[in-house]
Amino acid sequence: MGVDGVTGEDEGLRRRGCSCGKDDFLPEKSFKSWGNYVQALKETPNRFMNRVLTRSLDSTELHEIKARSQHEMKKNLSWWDLIWFGIGAVIGSGIFVLTGLQAQQVSGPAVVLSFVVSGVSAMLSVFCYTEFAVEIPVAGGSFAYLRVELGDFIAYIAAGNILLEYVIGGAAVARSWTSYFATLCNHDSDDFVIIVHSMPNDYSKLDPIAVVVVCVICVLAVLSTKGSSRFNYIASIIHVIVILFIIIAGFTKADTKNYSNFAPFGVRGIFKSSAVLFFAYVGFDAVSTMAEETKNPARDIPIGLVGSMAITTAAYCLLSVVLCLMQPYPKIDKDAPFSVAFEAVGMSWAKYVVAAGALKGMTTVLLVGAVGQARYLTHIARTHMLPPWLAQVHPKTGTPINATIVMLIATAIIAFFTDLKILADLLSISTLFIFLLVALALIVRRYYVSGETSTTDRDKLITCLILILGSSTATATYWGVSENNDWVAYVITMPIWFLATSGIAVFIKQARKPKVWGVPLVPWLPSLSIAINIFLLGSIDGASFKRFGIWTCVLLLYCFFFGLHASYDTAKESGENRIGDGWKRVEEGQSVSSVTASGVSLDEAK
């Protein structure tokens, strides 16, 4: 056994550096021979229950899991870096990609309220992420947080959607990069794509420029995190200057008559846009994955995450107001709205400034996304839910090169084929799903600690959480299927949510207090985050949920045939499967090193 629970095999892997052999992909016992694999498949039900009921520990994620990479990531980021990473990650995606489409076809000038709703939901999620990132500062982000509080299986499903979120988000921004590049060159966006009429409409416009952009980003991301930070810092400053120009110049050309029909599509249109425009806030979670490379996580992460989100929300609201005051909403261009708006008000030269600024913004979004998604993938691979080859950290650059390249290849392929609207809707589902799980995990973290929380309080907590989830889902479902403005159902569902949240606040004692920084007004804020995220899910079209369901089925197939057995073997080898008092202690979350000393295996416990 190696240091901090790492096996001799893991230590040998670290010494070799970034290698690429069979044992780097499937080193586990279950894959050593066909006989082993068949036996593993026969044990799938027991192994599955083990992974469902096993929860990790903070110390495990901080030491044992992290040690499975070959080298440490370099701690060279400050709160100043994180704020600019946050701004670079978020501003530039949604505001330049989707605002035009949503204002023109879904919500009209009331798109500003859509940004407010999405911003409130995002800020609540930021609070939840911040508390976790301060106490568990590892590259795994929400995957690590969910492993600790909700168990391996939930974390795995979330991990698949995290990866989908980043790949689709990067592909969407890469395709929009082409649209603004066409504007800068005074061309139509279709002039730079290859149209294949024999393919379905949503996949017929091939975008080679998007692929080239992703490849350039890949090179920057693998060279150095600090170097990426410097590039992002410079590009984001230029981008902020362009945003200030848009706001100031736009207000000089504002026409209040364009606000006369403020909400042409009604309240439903506002919330439908909110669900899609949540895409505009995707990226801040990438900042939480950089906690492992932060000099002082307790100070830097709260300032970086909350500060960047506050700046972003204010900028989005001002930009959306300016856009709708410059042009009547039916005339807003859905591909390059700000550039075309300036041209329409007689400032044709300004469209080039806007296009250049948008390109800068979208470039930083791609860069920060590439940095964040690679770190997610690295931590997931450390648990062997994905091949451990992806967890390797290069000794010179201190960056996860393998994970970065694999993720960006996937991004480039999807960006080459897929239409923006499909990407945006599917992205919002994955993001909202993950954020509601993180909020749920925060409530569990505060109110349930193994060995301290009584059985009565645990049962109360489970009941209240089921009621919160059930009432929120009922509200969202009714909103999604009803075509009228009948509010009767909400009079039932909303009080249930309120009473369930009150039950946690009044009748259940908090079992854990945050050590450094904590979300205020727990359980109210995380419970509200759950409700808003589920409600926004109810505003997304059914076709997107079908695609989401197909992706989830793919995840489950990989889980049952590969990921489940690889992670089970790894956990067993490092001591994670040893349980002192049978299933009871597994359910209570005492996995890994805390129960290794008992020396009782799973089979013995049964």
TrEMBL record:
<keyword id="KW-0813">Transport</keyword>
<keyword id="KW-0812">Transmembrane</keyword>
<feature type="transmembrane region" description="Helical">
    <location>
        <begin position="271"/>
        <end position="291"/>
    </location>
</feature>
<feature type="transmembrane region" description="Helical">
    <location>
        <begin position="349"/>
        <end position="377"/>
    </location>
</feature>
<feature type="transmembrane region" description="Helical">
    <location>
        <begin position="303"/>
        <end position="329"/>
    </location>
</feature>
<feature type="transmembrane region" description="Helical">
    <location>
        <begin position="231"/>
        <end position="251"/>
    </location>
</feature>
<keyword id="KW-0472">Membrane</keyword>
<dbReference type="InterPro" id="IPR002293">
    <property type="entry name" value="AA/rel_permease1"/>
</dbReference>
<feature type="transmembrane region" description="Helical">
    <location>
        <begin position="398"/>
        <end position="417"/>
    </location>
</feature>
<feature type="transmembrane region" description="Helical">
    <location>
        <begin position="153"/>
        <end position="174"/>
    </location>
</feature>
<keyword id="KW-1133">Transmembrane helix</keyword>
<feature type="transmembrane region" description="Helical">
    <location>
        <begin position="461"/>
        <end position="481"/>
    </location>
</feature>
<feature type="domain" description="Cationic amino acid transporter C-terminal">
    <location>
        <begin position="517"/>
        <end position="567"/>
    </location>
</feature>
<feature type="transmembrane region" description="Helical">
    <location>
        <begin position="517"/>
        <end position="536"/>
    </location>
</feature>
<feature type="transmembrane region" description="Helical">
    <location>
        <begin position="206"/>
        <end position="224"/>
    </location>
</feature>
<keyword id="KW-0029">Amino-acid transport</keyword>
<dbReference type="Pfam" id="PF13520">
    <property type="entry name" value="AA_permease_2"/>
</dbReference>
<dbReference type="GO" id="GO:0005313">
    <property type="term" value="F:L-glutamate transmembrane transporter activity"/>
</dbReference>
<dbReference type="GO" id="GO:0015189">
    <property type="term" value="F:L-lysine transmembrane transporter activity"/>
</dbReference>
<feature type="transmembrane region" description="Helical">
    <location>
        <begin position="110"/>
        <end position="132"/>
    </location>
</feature>
<dbReference type="GO" id="GO:0005886">
    <property type="term" value="C:plasma membrane"/>
</dbReference>
<dbReference type="InterPro" id="IPR029485">
    <property type="entry name" value="CAT_C"/>
</dbReference>
<dbReference type="Pfam" id="PF13906">
    <property type="entry name" value="AA_permease_C"/>
</dbReference>
<comment type="similarity">
    <text>Belongs to the amino acid-polyamine-organocation (APC) superfamily. Cationic amino acid transporter (CAT) (TC 2.A.3.3) family.</text>
</comment>
<feature type="transmembrane region" description="Helical">
    <location>
        <begin position="548"/>
        <end position="568"/>
    </location>
</feature>
<feature type="transmembrane region" description="Helical">
    <location>
        <begin position="77"/>
        <end position="98"/>
    </location>
</feature>
<feature type="transmembrane region" description="Helical">
    <location>
        <begin position="429"/>
        <end position="449"/>
    </location>
</feature>
<protein>
    <recommendedName>
        <fullName>Cationic amino acid transporter C-terminal domain-containing protein</fullName>
    </recommendedName>
</protein>
<feature type="transmembrane region" description="Helical">
    <location>
        <begin position="487"/>
        <end position="508"/>
    </location>
</feature>
